[in-house]
Amino acid sequence: MPRILFTTAQRAHVADTSAPLIAITLGERGYRPVYIRNMDPGLLNPAGTTDAIIESAIAGSVFGWDCPAAQPALDFEAELAGRPGPNPDDYFPRALAV
User: Fold this and answer.
1) What is the H or E stretch that residue 74 is in?
2) Tens of pLDDT along 35-73?
3) Are 35 and 19 in contact (CB under 8 A)?
4) Rounded to two decimals, what is the model's pTM?
5) 5 near 23, Cβ under 8 Å?
6) What's the burial of 25, exposed, middle or buried (CB within 10 Å: 0-12/13-18/19+)?
7) Given Cys at both, which of 34, 47, 95, 98 links 21, Cβ 3.0 to 4.6 Å?
8) Helices H, strands E: what count in the chain?
9) Residues 6+ apart with CB under 8 A from 9
10) How far is the C-alpha of 60 from the C-alpha of 28, rounded, in Å?
11) Distance between CA atoms of residues 39 and 97, nearest Å
12) What's the rounded Cα separation, in Å, for the pair 30 and 7?
């Protein structure tokens, strides 16, 4: 089940929407505008969501989920799902043995 995190469009530096909030689906590129009035984004995110996880999700949605900056959000999603997080070496293999 995909996890969705919410943040303000201003915090994510999104200038092309009039929506006050954006929804970031972990593992998917981009975001979706959310048109809800007077809603605290803190109420919409799962318990344990930190500023670092939100920033990591923003980075993953912009730069791709295989970038190192996205790792905390991926680990958080894996923790919520009750499985081990992805191994960074799967995305960034160390020097190949010769």
Assistant:
1) helix 71-81
2) 877 766 566 777 778 888 889 999 999 999 989 999 888
3) yes
4) 0.72
5) yes
6) middle
7) 34
8) 3, 3
9) 17, 19, 20, 21, 22, 33
10) 8
11) 53
12) 13
Residue 16: phi, psi to the nearest 5? -95, 25
Task: Give the least confident one: 6-10, 70-74, 89-93.
Answer: 89-93
**Contact by Cβ (8 Å): 9, 17:** yes
Structure tokens at 59: 């980075």
For residue 10, give the amino acid letter: Q
Nearest to 67 by CA among 27, 12, 9: 27
Cα–Cα distance, 41 to 23 (Å, whole number): 10
